Amino acid sequence: MSSELYQNIQTFYDQSSALWESTWGEHMHHGYYGPTGNHRKHDRYQAQIDLIDQLLRWAQIEQATAILDAGCGIGGSALYLCDRYQAQVSGVTLSPAQATRATERAALAGLSDFSWRMSSTPRFLTPSSTSFGRWKAANTIPTRGNFFKKAIAF
After folding, report:
1. Domain boundaries, the chain
2. Strand spans (E) along the chain
3. What's the predicted TM-score (pTM) here?
4. How many CB atoms lie within 10 A of CB 92?
5. What is the pLDDT of residues 92-127, one digit of tens each?
6. According to CATH, what is the number of the domain 3-30+61-152?
7. Which residues, in sequence order, are CB contacts of 89 under 8 Å at separation 6+?
């Protein structure tokens, strides 16, 4: 993928993240509405938390000491996981605006085991003892197969 495309993605998120946050809240992703997707919920925020929890159940993750959130947005899911597991969290985003907002939100939540990195490629992946990664950023990675092979090597 060209550096111009990465720059365009960064610019898009830099310019639109405040709108996404005001629309979706801290979690810039959809929610879980049961196995068929038809379970109605009155609280979209709870559906978003339910999605995180369901992904953890599917992955059979019961504890973590280090969490990598690739495509972290403004840190909603990473902050939730940091608090839940009392783990060190590293967030990776293309957007300086998102990294700034995530850092602000971590400070407001009193979560100090939080760090953010700017990266436009999966080269940041390194093995760690216990990690959980959320790979929503994969749609911006040209070599998804290699990305997931490295992620599975965790």
Report:
1. 3-30+61-152
2. 66-70, 88-93, 114-118, 133-134
3. 0.72
4. 23
5. 888 889 888 988 888 888 876 666 655 544 454 444
6. 3.40.50.150
7. 66, 67, 68, 69, 78, 79, 81, 82, 111, 113, 114, 115
